Amino acid sequence: MINYAIYLFANPMISFGYVVLLRIQTLMFTPIQGISQGICIVTAHLTGAKRFKTISQTLKKLIIIVMLVTAIVGVIYLFSYKSIIVYFTDNTEAKKAIGSLIVFSILSLFSQPVVRITNYYFIGIGKSIYSLLSILLNVSMFVVFMLIGEVLFNSHEFGIFMAIVLLM
Question: pTM value?
Fold first, then answer.
């Protein structure tokens, strides 16, 4: 849906920038993804053992750890993105577009731990349907933010850009 919206409304440079951004964010989100997948296994084990207080304590500690990891990765990401872009393009205009996307995508970095931990927690306790509903809600919110951005700013590209940044 995101790629199609960019294809329809944005210039090719934004589309290229989005693809590069996804590649770079894969590196950035790897620690968060690993920790989130671990919570699925731990939650499933503790739910089976009926140790619900331990689940609560584990989630609190995990959120603190993930937010620290996210802050560290975000700072590293902010200071190193210019040297990473070089591996994807040597076009000056593309570097500027990608750089803008990357800097603003750091906003989405801090929402990712909550989304991912919640989804894996639901899977761990055997409520995968809630994880599916969460993903559907995220996609629906993307469309809403895209339309709001388009109506408020009368710009297709900016609306898509803000929706990507807020919900990526």
Answer: 0.63
